[in-house]
Design goal:
single chain; 208 residues; alpha/beta; six-stranded mixed sheet; 6 helices; 12 strands; flat; TraW
Length: 208
């Protein structure tokens, strides 16, 4: 936290109290004044409001916020898949605290290794793809046609809203690439699903 600046008049008063000697008059003196910044800002806002500029700024801010929400920035460091590959991921984590049940009984102790797949199942496959690439959209449609109810489509680029409307189903977006980073995906389209007590990640090669 930044310290608040000490007003110039306070500094002058403090320095005056520390020196008792009367140096006499050194010339014409003037009252120390400081601009009232709040009043100045208020005046400028009133001026912008009277000219309509304030409303234009507000509308522009709302429009930019809406565009960001509806067209998120593409996930970085992800490229179209040119070579298919399959990897496996152990989702286990080391617990930082004890895990209790609803009755307060100890289930897992802090420091122990815990695999969430031991207590829950991943019922749907996660399909990651970039909607700006027609090849990836076609690939996604092919997969959804055969198993639409078991796949959750997640974009790494493009408009999830436009695609949701076109497909008449919910399409998601990996905000800030959190899932992509978690699964270590470098190429899309990619499918993530449970296989036993681990996750299988298939990066699917695209036709040239």
């Amino acid at each position: 936290m930044h310290a608040m600046p000490i007003p110039l008049c306070i500094l002058l008063l403090l320095s005056g109290s520390a020196v008792a000697e009367d140096l006499g008059a050194l010339g014409k003196t003037y009252p120390v004044t400081e601009p009232d910044f709040l009043k100045m800002i208020e005046q400028r806002l009133k001026e912008k409001q009277s000219t309509g500029e304030l409303q234009r700024l507000q509308e522009d801010a709302v429009r930019r916020g809406r565009d960001v929400a509806l067209h998120p920035a593409p996930v970085a460091n992800v490229v179209p898949c040119t070579s298919a590959r399959t990897r496996y991921l152990d989702p286990s984590v080391v617990l930082s605290r004890n895990i209790l049940d609803a009755q307060g009984r100890l289930l897992f102790t802090a420091g122990s290794r815990f695999n969430p797949l031991s207590v829950t199942e991943m019922h749907k496959k996660l399909l990651f793809f970039d909607a700006r690439d027609k090849r990836q959209v076609d690939k996604a449609l092919l997969l959804l046609r055969d198993a639409a109810d078991t796949i959750k489509p997640i974009l790494t680029g493009g408009s999830y809203l436009d695609l949701s409307r076109a497909w008449r189903r919910q399409v998601y977006f990996d905000q800030q690439g959190l899932l992509i980073k978690r699964f270590g995906i470098q190429q899309v389209p990619a499918v993530v699903y449970q296989e036993g007590m681990r996750l299988r990640i298939d990066e699917l090669e695209l036709r040239q």
